[in-house]
Amino acid sequence: MTEAIGVEGLVKIYPKGVTALDGVSFDVREGTIFGLLGPNGAGKSTTVKILTTLSRPDAGLARVAGADVVRHAHRVRRSIGAVAQKSGVDREATGRENLMLQGHLYGIDGGTLRARVGELLNRFGLAEAADRVARTYSGGMQRRLDIAMGLVHRPSVLFLDEPTTGLDPAVRADMWQMIAGLAADEGLAILLTTHYLEEADRLAARLAILERGRVAAEGTPEGLKAELRGDAVHVELTETPHDGRVQAALRPVPGVREVVVDGRALRARADDGARAVPAVLQSLEAGGLAVDSVTVARPSLDDVYLRYTGRRFGDAAEASPNGKDPALATAR
Amino acid sequence: MPTSLAHTWYMTLRQLRNLMRQPWYIALTLFQPIIYLLLFGALFAKVVEIPGFGSASYISFLAPGVVVMTALFSAGWTGMGMVNDLDRGVMDRFLITPVRRGALMMGTLVQLAVVIVIQAAIILGLALLRGASFPGGLAGVAVVVLAAILLAAPFGALSNGVALLVRKEETVIAAVNFVLLPLIFLSGVFMAQSLMPHWMQSVARVNPVNWAVTAGRAAVGASVDWGVVWSRLGLLAGFALVCALLATQAFRVYQRSI
Question: What domains appear along chain A, each with residue ranges and CATH number?
């Protein structure tokens, strides 16, 4: 299989010296969905802007559909479709008008374009609303129109920047099905950015975890989870422990590692979770730490994220993009 | 059809369609000029009696000036549409297609020209009802409209440029008020140039607004000095070209900043 997107050492520094990308590299193969996972401010949108020729990198190389995004931007533009985070639908125009204009800009005209637009309107369930101005569309309809607009000229690479953000869960599930279908039916390579772990897990064949402008981990969702070797043990304590007490208590327990305490929550990794629980509980009690509840789980992407970035995904997503993170007591 | 012409055509269609869906926009832009034409025109009707004013009817004198002024303000507001397109991600979506940057600029300017034709027809019609006369006839009126369009094009392009650079409606509004209002008072829109203070006359000579007013007013007069008309129209066309090329570069600056 050949490469649809190749990124090497991409760097982007915004005015005022804010480093958005700090040497990002990854590859996306033809006909596959690649997930770029990370909290707000990790550099996902910046990566998409550079790969879609909207913005320029300060260093590094990027090829999309075989063409360099800086030197041959024009060639790249002909091969890509994109759906930006903040939509790009002209709300004062109808769905059909939006699609027709998009086609005209790629030099498609006449009957060919009308047929393609009709086909997309049907496929995305917009045929009935085709001649209403997009302002009257629901959030889900606007997103679908957005994606249809990115497909008018039959691109080989599609960029979806947080396609389900702000949609309600039922609509999100529909959208997932549709995106999976696009890669399977049309052989499109799709670069999908998301801050929903579940979305990346469900859709992406491979994914990269982006953290403060760097790729913290890359692989298949299964591979990343398997690398963690072992189960996640989550313990809820009755009260917030003093710094270091938990680590001291658990140090003698064999097979337990990567202990992270966040408030009353304690997370650790164990080769065999079920077997480790009695020893963990005993050691905690012995250390004067009362336990509220305990769960053992197979590793999730959340655990992968924790492992590579040292913080929980939910915390990172809430942290402000300028890097003020909640204080974490971490011990490896 | 060459690509850039085709792109300009489709971008213009988009703009005109949006305009047709909100025709009240034109009415809104006409409110102020009509106040000027009717109230200002009545208030200063006797100004023509000042020796050396050189015109017998103030409303006939004022009407071409109001057309030019209206066109200028409409041009100033062009950037508001650009800010809106930038806010909504519509512009970013265009910029990643093979569309020519010049076509994105031209689409808004051709729409502006259409708006100006409609505005001019209403203003001049109203002036005729109030007793104005344009001995220069239809050819003269056409020159007024052409001069207004040639003046609006560069300022519309600059307004788009400002919008791309700052992406804030407030800044576009400020630029319109700080730049355009003084330019109007430093021209012959309301007053015969010969009666202006000396320093103002010097400024007016290099003021594009004054070029447009001079050309338009000369063309609707009784005996037309075509040398004056064509020289001013030529200056305006050159100014328009320079500004449009300059403003189109703002797309590059915008893309570098995101």
Answer: 3-224 (3.40.50.300), 229-330 (3.30.70.100)
